[in-house]
Amino acid sequence: MRVPIRQWGKRSFDNLRPSRHSPEARGQAMDEGGRSVHDAGPTDSPASQSESGQRGPRLLQPTFCGSPWNDERPPMPVPEAKRVLKAAENAPLATAVAFNFEDFRKQCDQYLQRVRNTARQIVQQAAQEAEQIKQQAYEKAKAEAYRDAMQQADAEIQRRAKALAEEQAAQSLQSMLPAIKDAADSILREYQEWLGRWEASAIRLSVAIAERLIARELRTRPEAATEMLAQALRLVSRVDRLTVRLNPDDLRALGESAEPFVRSIVHAERVELQAEASIPRGGCVIETRHGTVDARLETMLDRIVQELLQDPDDPS
Description:
Elements: H1 10-16, H2 23-26, E1 29-30, E2 36-37, H3 46-52, E3 63-64, E4 67-68, H4 87-220, H5 223-233, E5 241-246, H6 248-254, H7 258-266, E6 270-275, E7 284-287, E8 292-294, H8 297-309
């Protein structure tokens, strides 16, 4: 049963509505029967509660702007039984407050769930990114390690190949060294033989050239034969007698002065001059009791050749 509110103004009726966030709504509790129970106001005494014999919402004093409502019209008489609101009539208000709190709790739970889901997604995404970064770092480190290992392997292979090649070359050289030495000795011997043959050929060629030059000189200048005879006679020591054999042309060139010319050089008591066609011009053969001096041109040139071709290490 509702309390008449005609004597109250609209503003006083608004004051009867408990705010969702008012202390009355926050302090509201439920009894054993599921009915809403309000805390007793400061004007409700324990005696009045005991006299009523039941619990219920306290009567709100109509106010206007925080002051008691002052109506000029006298209030209508209201029976005492109607001043107490039934708990069943106030139940929709408590249900609305409880429903609003349940909605707020659900909204909070939903918001927390969304936050948890977002956090879970962030954590999962971070874990995936971390795993991806880890995998990339692993692949990069693996590639760098592989590259470094390949470089080290290449360097080691080159070093070992070089060492093996040097070792094999040394072994081959050791096995080939005797053959190489023999080949070198053979080449040296052949070189020395070739050099000796070349020197002999050169000397003989020089002697042949000299012989031709001397022969031409004797043909163009016959007095040169007398000079060559004088050189040969100076090789003979002082003797008592000697025999000189020379070319007939040289003997004719000397004429009657031939014997005095020989005596003036060797100071011999007896001198015999003999013409011999086998002796070339410019040459002569001197015979004494001590021996023979062969001063023929070819003999002297052969002696020169022998002297030039003689081995310096061979005293013979």
